[in-house]
Write a structure and sequence with these properties.
Largest interface: A-B, 76 and 76 residues
Strand content of chain A: 15-25%
Helix content of chain A: 25-40%
Number of helices of chain A: 14
CATH class of the largest domain in chain A: Mainly Alpha
Number of domains of chain A: 3
Oligomer: homodimer
Distance between the termini of chain A: 37 Å
Largest sheet of chain A: 10 strands, antiparallel
């Protein structure tokens, strides 16, 4: 399917939606967080956690780790001596500011506004008169500006600064942060323009930020600069490195690429920016090409959780079907970035399958990151843990991004603020509109208001999803003229039922579109929440002979803390044809145990296979599974998403 | 079985064998390269390649990359400005000197001796009066000595310097290199002694070097210093790092460890040094404990090739049974290090199973590294390649240690000189002796001479192994008094037959011990060379449902260059119960092809499995396999050692 560009929308609307992504054209439009409010349930709780715990935790650690003080040290001239943190530490402050900006708009928290202003003042003080702003380069005693574009992250930091400013503009504030970001953006256009430095940044991010700034300010110079960066990329202006230039997507021009590769977050941020630019340039072919790259990535390089990135070493995509569960990197930030791309494609094309991707990733990657307390985070999200990890220190900066238990803060701490900004802007992903209707993308409890051409629609959505599959939508207000309500039917929900005022309507494929008139109606979506046994494509070598369990949008896992005492998770098999039952905490499957022979050498000839007894399996036992996103919340444990199939319970091949 | 310490041997023999490892006690003793000569066949060709190509190639690149010039730059005071290479670049020079030392003794190459002396003079000139010698630390404008023990590799470099000097002493030279190394060793004892700096080196190596220096000089101070380093290790004297202190084995004392972990080469070098020290201290329990650690590593953390190291990121062992074929690191140096450990255990215990490990590793890891030309090398040795690599530049330093095609030189170039020193000293691993007999460990064509208590034995061994399995041993000279000839029977050779003067003798287990008297006898060993289908332990998740093919000591692989045009290796299945045949180039198995359905999402519910047709497989076709060590010698290709089993050809489970 090609992207439909709805040129009508170019005429401009009086007020832009309060949303993180606002394309001027697209099949559907975001409603934004002013028109959608989540007020309870799975995501409501996480938005409260974000306000009460996660954002204050970010502020605390950014101060404690010295990353905010780096800005003060630029002002007092000591930064070369006292600076702490990675090269890109500034960006964590900016992402936190972005999270705060959305959260201020969402909750109207006045205290948060005060804290925000204080941070902005410290950042602003460090900006140079020409707009340059960085605590790691260009100050006395530091390496010169743009002297390490491969690893220096200067433009990446500017990108996050600009995204924070875009959040402020979209939420109705033209403040000091906006001035700082526009000055920085102007500086970038000056230095890296068509006749300027012929380089790109090792970490994409500036591209999407510049297009968004162009959208919100109407200044097309920023869009043109994004295009300059996009077209310059892939021509080897960055130096070669151990991982190859594919690591930062500087080996092949974007247009010549087939599937996302290299560092996952970089590849996804770049794709988001390229889609943004393509949309604003009305380049349907370009957006289609990016969509095909992302679709191939979903088909061949994505974990069942929605996670992306198969390598720890370079935080990169693997080859097609190289998806090891134990060494899954699935960086939380790559989950955020995949949602960014999927959301842009959904807006551009109206294809609700991207809503499936967003749902999968929200529930099984992004929700997995924060602990129940909101004060510790997963950086990576592997699908198997063979050895229970040592507990991460509860109050120390972790040197290990790959911490197997959630850690309060990391030497590389990109993920916690990325979770925070996503949670704060989450309502924006719940629904979209076009001229004639509303599309419900995610099922949550809350209110939705849309201004259609025929009038205002107000909806109240109530659900216990994903614990149960009943979603009730009450049309509190709507015009008498015809409009449509579209529901996303998740790919796994083969037997979904929709009723309108108790009358069943047909459901076909990924969407259920209901012609509506007037208010007072009740639409109920019944999603089948029976647990499912899932099998992988046979080309995924690392999970051959295994299955996973899912329930609704949730991928389940076995955790050793739920096994009978003395049972090793590595000896557990699952009856793929056995009964499954939902329980309070998850799912119960039929498990069996196998015994192993220990040998000096773990390989043997199969010559005598026929004469050898099959590995004996126990009688079935009740095997409890819990949602993957909850794993390790009860302390160190071993864990598996993919469980070897029992031979006893297996039908003959 | 416990190590047997043969205390008799402590009385000392007039001449130490010319060998890389000469313990003063042990179940068996090395014969050394003066008493064993390989003159043809698989390994004879590689020793010639080493002399004619590999060693000159090392000299060329170490000069071209500037690593040798670093020593000159220390002398002229410019090193802080002009130094090139990694922190440990000095060690490559020392390993090359060690290779040259053994090669000079093996071949008597006078030109090589001259080249050796020239390099030694340049190295020696850079030594400080107090014995310190390093081109990266401690010179004007450089960081101070021992200011970065985590990553600085200073003691590691000294270790290789000392090993080169030990090679010179064992081959009968007390020259300038020996003086330099002893001065350096004395400096190390001074600085890091019991009352000195309470630190260890991030990369073990000094330990085995000091014990060997102690053995060859008789100076027990070096042994005591090795013990100081061994006992100090595991107490966190090194700083914490991203990978944790287990990376350099500084988290847990050696005695408290269960299985090797962390960086594979570091873990194995440390184990080699600890065994060396334990042997010299007659600490049977300590050596037994190290043996148990290594045995567990073989049983749970070793690839079918003998390769070790499952992670690219930290070049480290994985958890038990975490042995992904595609991301197998299997660094060539880890193969060398594993041979070092296995050889020490074989000498200590007389257990010929360690000869199996050495054989497996020599044929499937170390022999895999150099190209046919001897001018390009594998650094890592993965067991699967899904995408054909771009050809490595033929004449450029590779930034990528993980180059998927052999590269002429690496930014980190530890492996090529490690291969060279192993090839040059290879004869030493062919046979051992004790007071009453000779043990043949590896089967090669050449001559063996042993001085037993009852007299001199001279053997001529002739074989086409591993192409064929017939090994003929002619006893050219032997005393009339009784002695024994022991043959290692490889673990895979279940139906081996041994004849003495055409009369069959019984073969039981890992060894065949033949009572001998007098000369003129002919012993023939017939090893079964029929190809075998091998299956992995079911706990190795990443290769579940696959089998591998082996023939004799060679692990085989499928390379895409051998498949019919248009056939994708990923669609190949193997009949595990099908016929196998040896061919000129390897083995032919029965393959089948499967077709795949491409889908938008590579996971699906198994609910309808029973009603779904099984994935169709083609009629069988002849599937050619070649020895793993030859892979990629015919250009870029995809490759698999572990091949998914055909369902058609599979017996019911």
């Amino acid at each position: 399917m090609s992207m439909t560009i709805d040129a009508q929308d170019r005429t401009g609307r009086p007020a832009q939606p309060v949303a993180p992504v606002v394309p001027t054209v697209g099949a559907v439009r975001p409603l934004g967080i002013e028109r959608i409010r989540i007020d309870d349930g799975f995501w409501g709780a996480r938005q409260r956690l974000n306000q009460e715990s996660i954002i204050p935790h970010l502020e605390y650690w950014e101060e404690r780790a010295g990353w905010l003080k780096n800005f003060d040290a630029v002002v007092d001239g000591t930064v070369a001596d006292v600076r702490t943190g990675q090269k890109f530490a500034d960006s964590e402050i900016y992402k936190t500011l972005e999270a705060m900006a959305w959260e201020i708009a969402r909750s109207g928290d006045a205290g948060l506004q005060t804290r925000f202003d204080r941070i902005v003042a410290r950042v602003a003080a460090a900006q140079k008169p020409d707009g340059y702003l960085n605590t790691r380069f260009g100050n006395a005693g530091q390496p010169p500006r743009y002297s390490d574009l491969e690893w220096g992250h200067e433009l990446y930091c500017f990108g996050h600064l600009i995204q924070a400013a875009v959040a402020r503009l979209r939420t109705g504030h033209r403040d000091q942060l906006v001035d700082v970001a526009i000055k920085a953006a102007d500086h970038v256009c000056e230095v890296f323009g068509p006749d300027g430095l012929q380089r790109v940044c090792g970490h994409p991010e500036i591209e999407t930020a510049l297009v968004e700034l162009s959208r919100v300010t109407g200044d097309e110079r920023y869009l043109r600069q994004a295009r300059v960066f996009l077209d310059r990329r892939g021509h080897g202006t960055l130096g070669d490195i151990e991982f190859g230039r594919s690591y930062f997507q500087d080996d092949v021009p974007i247009r010549d690429n087939e599937v996302l590769r290299g560092h996952a977050v970089r590849a996804l941020y770049l794709t988001a920016g390229a889609i943004d630019a393509g949309i604003e340039e009305h380049d349907v072919r370009y957006v289609d090409l990016l969509r095909a790259q992302y679709d191939r990535t979903l088909a061949r390089r994505t974990y069942i959780t929605g996670g992306m990135g198969s390598h720890h070493q370079d935080e990169a995509f693997g080859d097609d079907f190289e998806l090891p569960p134990d060494r899954a990197y699935c960086e939380t930030c790559a989950g955020v970035a995949s949602v960014m791309v999927a959301w842009r494609l959904l807006l551009a094309t109206g294809d609700l399958r991207y809503g499936d991707v967003i749902e999968r990733t929200l529930y099984n990657v992004i929700a997995a990151s924060p602990s129940d307390s909101g004060r510790a985070f997963f950086y990576t999200n592997p699908l198997q843990q063979r050895v229970a990890a040592a507990a991460a220190p509860a109050d120390e900066l972790s040197l290990r991004a790959q911490s197997q238990l959630r850690a309060p803060w990391f030497e590389v701490s990109c993920c916690p603020p990325n979770v925070a900004r996503t949670f704060a802007q989450l309502a924006s992903y719940v629904a979209t509109q076009n001229a004639t209707g509303v599309q419900i993308i995610q099922y949550m409890t809350g209110d939705i208001r849309a201004e259609l051409d025929v009038g205002v629609v107000e909806l109240r959505m109530t659900t216990g999803y994903p614990d149960d599959g009943v979603v009730t939508i009450d049309v509190d207000s709507a015009p008498d003229a015809p409009w449509t309500l579209t529901l996303r039917i998740p790919e796994w929900a083969e037997s979904a039922v929709v009723t309108v005022d108790d009358a069943e309507v047909p459901v076909v494929g990924a969407r259920c579109t209901i012609p509506m008139t007037g208010s007072g109606h009740r639409i109920v979506l019944h999603l089948p929440m029976e647990p499912r046994i899932m099998e992988p494509d046979p080309r995924i070598d690392s999970v051959r002979g295994t299955v996973a369990v899912a329930r609704g949008p949730l991928v389940m896992c076995v955790e050793s803390v739920d096994l009978p005492v003395g049972v090793d998770l590595e000896s557990v098999r699952i009856d793929a044809a056995g009964a499954l039952a939902s329980t309070r905490s998850g799912v119960e499957a039929s498990g069996r145990l196998v015994g192993y022979e220990d040998a000096m050498w773990p390989y043997r000839s199969v010559a005598d296979e026929a004469s050898r007894p099959a590995v004996p399996e126990s009688e079935p036992f009740r095997l409890p599974l819990v949602p993957y996103h909850t794993w390790a919340n009860r302390g160190p444990s071993t864990m598996r998403v993919w469980i070897p199939r029992s031979h006893t319970g297996r039908p003959a091949a």
